[in-house]
Design a protein that fits this description.
Blueprint: H1 9-28, H2 31-47, H3 58-83, H4 106-124, H5 128-139, H6 144-151, H7 155-175, H8 177-184
Helix pairs in contact: 1-2, 1-3, 2-3, 5-7, 6-7
Domain RNA polymerase sigma factor 70 region 4 type: 119-169
Family: Belongs to the sigma-70 factor family. ECF subfamily.
Domain RNA polymerase sigma-70 region: 13-79
Length: 185
């Protein structure tokens, strides 16, 4: 295969379109869903077009995008179906009446706020690189690619920093008896 710097998106599409479609079909086991999934995958590829030249193994990169997109769709559908029952055509009750009430009790809200305060305090004590990585990923919900771009590092470095930050945060919480009792209560 030619170098990726000279590879255009059209060439990538021509070369891997059938592969991505068959992978989508294998994952969804439904032609219409496979086509929808494939469309989402190619939208993401176009969105991250600037990274194509940096990718060493294009097929693996495309496979990862496809798998992650499928997982995201699956999780979204599971969450949606968890809170929404199938409403028969003859049922007169509005659909929204079938959605369970997820309001937390006052006690649960206070407990949640206490845990959030402990975690925020511990995050603020982390080194700047680890703190920023956690905030970008969990608070701002940026992708690994976006974080790598902002921090001017590789995706592997972002993954390492996330892993180390979570390990350090866990260590800090477990070494603090007050924090541990607030979270484990």
């Amino acid at each position: 295969m030619e170098t990726l710097q000279t590879t255009t998106l059209n060439e990538v599409y021509e070369e891997y379109n059938r592969y991505i479609y068959h992978l989508c079909l294998k994952l969804t086991r439904n032609k219409a869903e496979a086509e929808d999934l494939m469309q989402e995958v190619w939208v993401k590829v176009v969105r991250y077009e600037s990274y194509v030249a940096q990718v060493d193994h294009l097929k693996a990169w495309l496979t990862t995008i496809c798998m992650n997109t499928f997982r995201d769709r699956y999780r979204k559908n599971v969450r949606r179906s968890k809170y929404m029952m199938n409403q028969p055509d003859t049922l007169d009750v509005p659909v929204l009446d079938l959605v369970p009430n997820d309001d937390l009790s006052t006690e649960e809200l206070i407990e949640k706020e206490d845990v959030a305060k402990v975690v925020q305090e511990k995050i603020s004590q982390l080194d700047g690189i680890y703190k920023n990585t956690l905030l970008y990923f969990y608070v701002h919900q940026l992708s690994l690619i976006e974080i790598a771009d902002i921090m001017k590092v590789s995706i592997g470095t972002v993954k390492s920093r996330l892993f180390r930050a979570k390990a350090r945060l866990k260590e800090m919480v477990l070494s603090d008896e007050a924090a541990t009792s607030a979270i484990m209560a």
